[in-house]
Amino acid sequence: METSPISLKEMPSGMDSFKEIIEGDYLYVDKTRHIFDLVRKGKNYFLSRPKRFGKSLLLSALKSFFSGPPDLNGHPAGLFQNLWIAKSGLVFPERHPIIYLSMASPGKNNDFLETTILDALNDINFLEDLGLKLTTLGSGFSRVIERLFLKYKKQVVILIDEYDAPVSEKIDNLPLAELNRDTLKDFYSGLKAVGDYTRFAFITGSTRYAFMGLSAGLNHLVDLTLIERHADICGFTHGELDTYFSPYFPGILEIMKKRGVLTQKSTVMDLRAKILNLYDGYTWDGDTKILNPYSLLNFIENAAFNPYWMQIGASNKFLNSVVSRNPLSFLKDKLQNLTPIDVGYAEVGSLAPAPALFQTGYLTIDSITFTDKSNLYKFKTPNEEIRTAFEKSFKDSLFGLLRKDPDGEGIKFKEILDSGDEAKLTALITSLYSSLPAKLHRAEESFYHSVLHAYCWGILDIPPLSELPGGEGTPDIIILFGDGLYVVIELKYQKPTDPLNPETDEEKLKDILGDLASKGLKAIDAKKYANPYLSRANKIIKIGLGVYHREDCLALVKIEDYKGHRAADPQ
Fold first, then answer.
1. pLDDT tens digit string along 21-68?
2. Cα angle: 141, vertex 146, 148; to 5 degrees
3. Phi, psi (5° rounding) for residue 187?
4. Of 23, 98, 198, 542, which is least packed with CB atoms within 10 Å of its CB?
5. CA-to-CA distance for 118 and 138, rounded, in angstroms?
6. CB contact at 8 A, 455 and 479
7. Which pLDDT score is estimated for 570?
8. Could you give the angle at the alpha carbon of 348 between the alpha carbons of 111 and 144, nearest 5°?
9. Kind of pairing, strands 222-223 and 44-48?
10. Which residues pair with 102 in a beta bridge?
11. Residues 6+ positions from 531 with CB-CB distance below 8 Å
């Protein structure tokens, strides 16, 4: 980035060494309040956050904290002397033996993973002169911890970064992912057995995979992922954006004006709003908003708006792998009312899409509903950087699932609407529903609503408004066209009285569907769904959609213009 008229610290882009950042006088966003809280209140922790969100830097700071030595009075050593924790009154510990492991770069096969872990344990064994002969993972891990304790007469600190990488980075190769999971299960089993010999354990990863079935080795860890007081333990809050990064804004603003990215009338607040739109929106408590630290640091460094986090190759690979398995899992009704168990579960081999993508940074909490039984979570995409990539992956997968060629679909749909041809629109929507495999159909109105929403969004490339309050209720779908045409759709659904014996008589089916479609039109009028658009629409079309649930799924539509007259007959 071009130089600023005032002296500003360099960005620590790509750096995850706390010692290197502090000694090199790079910008450090002070997170030591969390270290103070963690070391005082417990000893065994787990944290899930997306890749490049600062987990490694947090572990590095913890390593420095336990490395000592402090001064004679127990005050913080040089690395911490200007940070929040130095003013806390906390007496810093003497040096503890530390085991610091990273599970990143798991290799091409399971044998490589086992060898890599054993080599890491044997390196500690050799460097510390522990005199062990290590041949197995779990028992070898526990023996190294015990022997370090006996050598130094101090409890051991365990820091493990990217604990899940050998699984999450191989998710497109399920047999290898499952083999790696079993290997890690053996390794982590050695941790719980040596609790008396450990002072502190902190394990981080991107995904939980229900702790990847590792309950025997990791279920004693306190999961910080959704703990409110640690919602900002990684990433940057709005307050931190203003405190640490706003001094860079004037210089960046001038660069962007010079490049023509922002207008000459743009202000620092306009720049800030653009930054929030692209990189903000993450939350782990439903309230504290967090900016993506990797993208923000790179933006400040380069003075250019780019999807920095999404350009990480592994990120796109994981996203496409999960979405392609079943894009219908990301329809509106599948991203809400999830319990903490749902949120935490993403088992290998039966990957639950919403929690998997929440844990890895492609979805975030939209809202939390607190009940007397359990919290209920609703998810959404966090920001424009993620939304663009997510929608592309969703659309690509949906095209394949619906066996539709997107070219021309929007034009055809608009032509049918303009003509008012109920038969053609009925055939199109029936074809849409019938193109989905029968095993995916659910006997719920929300399913057919969501598929139609996805068709508009993913195939037609016309983002619809669903369940948006208007008139005296919430219409199912509103579609807005650029020429001023507004389409109000109300879906009415019926399932067979006897699911094993659905109606087959064509005339009776026509009557059922016609009655449902008429009820949809009447609901639009009765609840005045079209009224909010009167002043801005050139034309409003009402559609009553009737759907009857069976394997081949039948639909029928009735079309009226807003004044209640039937739309013109096709010429």
1. 998 999 999 999 999 999 998 899 999 999 899 999 999 999 999 987
2. 95
3. -65, -50
4. 23
5. 10
6. no
7. 39
8. 45
9. parallel
10. 161
11. 470, 471
**496 CB-near residues (< 8 Å, 6+ apart):** 502, 503, 548, 549, 550
Characterise 528 by phi-psi region: left (phi > 0), alpha (psi -120 to 50), beta (else): left
ω into 69 cis (within 30 of 0): yes
Query: Which superfamily does 31-230 belong to?
Result: P-loop containing nucleotide triphosphate hydrolases (3.40.50.300)
Residues 280-337: tens digit of each pLDDT? 999 999 999 999 999 999 999 999 999 999 887 555 666 666 666 655 555 555 677 7
Reference 137, options 156, 117, 157; nearest CA is 117
Give CA–CA dist 405/277, Å, rounded. Answer: 32
| Burial class of residue 296 (count of CB atoms within 10 Å of its CB; 0-12, 13-18, 19+) | buried
Contacts of residue 514, defined as CB under 8 A and 6 or more positions apart, other chains included, come to 546, 556, 558
| Pairing assessment for the beta strands 485-494 and 539-548 based on DSSP bridges | parallel
Provide, rounded to the nearest whole percent, the portion of the chain with pLDDT above 90.
35
Q: Is 285 helix (H, G, I), strand (E, B) or coil?
A: coil
Token reading at 30: 């002070």
Single-letter residue type at 208: R
Amino acid at 396: D
pLDDT tens-digit map of 375-411:
888 888 899 998 877 766 666 665 555 545 545 555 6
487 band by pLDDT with thresholds 50, 70 and 90: confident
Token pair 């790696």 is found at 180
- pLDDT at residue 90, rounded to an integer: 85
**β-bridge mates for residue 555, sequence order:** 547
pTM of the model: 0.72
Q: Which of 282, 295, 302, 366 is nearest to 332 (CA)?
A: 366
Domain assignments of the chain as residue spans, ordered by start: 31-230, 236-310, 312-387, 403-561
How far lies 311's CA from each of 165, 214, 307, 394, 470, in Å? 18, 31, 6, 17, 39
Q: What pLDDT, on a 0 to 100 scale, did the predictor assign at position 447?
A: 76
Q: Would strands 376-380 and 364-369 be described as parallel, antiparallel, or unpaired?
A: antiparallel
Q: For the chain, give the percent of residues with pLDDT over 70.
A: 79
Burial track 227-254 (b if 16+ CB lie within 10 A, e otherwise): eeebbbbbbbbeebbeebbeebbebbbe
pLDDT at 402: 53
Q: CB neighbours of 80 closer than 8 A, spacing ≥ 6? A: 32, 64, 65, 86, 92
What is the C-alpha to C-alpha distance for residues 446 and 326, in angstroms, rounded to an integer?
A: 17
Asked if residue 140 lies in contact with residue 190, where contact means CB atoms within 8 angstroms, the answer is yes
User: Per the structure block, which two tokens stand in for 515?
Assistant: 């009655």
Distance CA 4, CA 22 (A): 22
